[in-house]
Design brief:
Layout: E1 8-15, E2 18-26, H1 33-42, E3 63-68, E4 71-80, E5 86-94, E6 101-106, H2 142-145, E7 151-156, H3 172-186, E8 191-200, H4 202-212, E9 218-224, H5 230-235, E10 236-237, E11 240-241, H6 244-250, E12 258-260, H7 262-268, H8 274-277, E13 290-295, H9 301-310, E14 316-321, H10 325-330, H11 332-346, E15 359-366, E16 369-377, E17 386-393, E18 398-400, E19 408-412, E20 418-424, E21 429-433, E22 436-444, E23 450-458, E24 467-469, E25 472-474, E26 477-478, E27 481-482, E28 513-518, E29 522-526, E30 531-537, E31 561-566, E32 573-578, E33 583-585, E34 588-590
Parallel strand pairs: 6-7, 6-8, 8-9, 9-13, 13-14, 14-15
Antiparallel strand pairs: 1-2, 2-12, 3-4, 4-5, 5-7, 10-11, 15-16, 17-18, 17-32, 19-31, 20-30, 21-29, 22-28, 22-31, 22-32, 23-26, 23-27, 23-30, 24-25, 33-34
Length: about 600
Amino acid sequence: MSNDNRERIIVKKTFEGEEFDVIYMKGTPGKTKEEMDAMRASGNVNVDPAAATFSYCPALNTCTYQAGPGIICHRDTPVKMRDGVTIYADIYVPENLTEKVPCIVSWGIFGKRPAEGQDEWKLMGVPPKTVSNMAKFESADPGYWCRNGYAVANVDARGVGNSEGYCNLWGTEDAQDGYDFIEWAAQQDWCNGKCTLFGNSGVCMANWKIASLQPPHLACLAAWEGTSDLYRESYFCGGIPNPAYEENIIKEVACKTYVEDTVSMVNKYPEMNAYWRDKQVKFKEVRVPTYVTAGWVHHHLRGSVEGFRRIRAPKKWLRIHRDFEWPDAYNPDNLEELKRFFDRYCKDINNGWEFTPKVRVDVLDAYDFDYAVRRKEKEWPLARTEYKKLYLNAEAMDGGFDTYANPSEVVYDPKTETTEFLIPVNEDIEITGYMKLHLEVECRGYDNMDIFPWVLKYNANKEYVPIEVMGAPYRGAWGFCRASHRDMDPTAKDFQPIQSHLYNERLEPGKIYPLDIEMYPHSRIWHKGEYIVVRLAGKFIKTEWFHDAAMNHNVDNGDGMHVIHTGGEHQSYLQVPAIPPKYVSGDYVYRG
């Protein structure tokens, strides 16, 4: 259970015909601006500085006022849900409307006027004053969109701020409310009958779920970087519990009633079940035109790319970039491109959007420069992918394309040590797509192993070469695996092993187990003479990179020693998605 000592209650709910005890904890009543200022002055703020703003909740005040030049706000507009619960939204519309406009819905738990709760509205990586004070956290900015012929609805979801009911986190109940709000908004006298959803991170997580319920008046979806499977991508990374990040968020949400205590639910239900499946997106039900973005350096990466792959929308686009989510979301070029997407499907403007390549990929190289920028592709994963195995050799701590006849092993202490294999690159190789790490493992002195692998780049001098984003180094592709959760989901592909998480099967002494570990998607070029490095650890090794704050796993390594077997009957390997050049003629090579 969470370390927070607030009151908790049990609400019985049914998922897939099975009844569950869902734990709710007493929310944090919304703080005034003065209370927020005092909290910051005392240093008593959340680990995530942005999360402190979630606590702000202004007094309920239904009115209409001038929010900015040419923009009217209908503040605290009440909207009834299907069960009679009332939620509140701030709805920004262009002033002096001469025609009805589409509505961009900004949905989520983060509060609809966060700028009022701080001295200056700031987002990491975004220059000051880029985003107006009207914007909801990680959402559409009315200061931009209303001046381009759209309404923006900043909604406080159920239980948030002054909205009634209990706050539900990223499940079907929350999505049903989003469905109801869209259908309400489409009927308003300022709306042209078309709505869309836009926002990144936690907002996008809610948007995926809402879109899967197929609201009739949802015209399209902009899914900008959002987790889509909370069990696998947040609460239990590879089966390893990671509740602390979400705890830092939900304990700050302004909620006058009760908020779903997913941290306590992690402890109550550690294996996959119907409760956790309710927090997965049913991708096959997403059918509207969808523009998806994903960032190579963010923990939302898997959910974003899975969304693009699995949705059944006949019209869908994917852009995978090297930037962090906030500067990417508010970059003016990206906003103009998103406007063309919205204009096409929310306003029926024939603007040539369909010429946009289905997939665009940034191929990373070193530091802050790239090998390719927005390279045009037709599909994901790339059809020309050649999956190749790089076998590991513990005898020399290296590797190559050929198997090793001699059995060998490397032993490391997961509490204090890491180990790494340096695989020499004999010719340029581009890795774009899904890597799989197959390890033959043994645990000596305990009955479980938590493994945190990374795939890094070293230069010809065996020096670490990071990626740089917003001035901070980022390592590369990553994965997670709890050995006792090694059972595979029957739908898993060879290139993407997915654990079922239905069982917790402890390890037997002296026995060697095969583990297939899913690595998050990646795209990077290694040049001749460089090294592909496989680094293994027993815990998440933090750096100064921002998203490391999300990783606070409850590891289960005991006093055991990790043993990696290679060669002979126990070939361990890294399977990589090698991308051949698009065209080769003699010495000429074109990769696109």
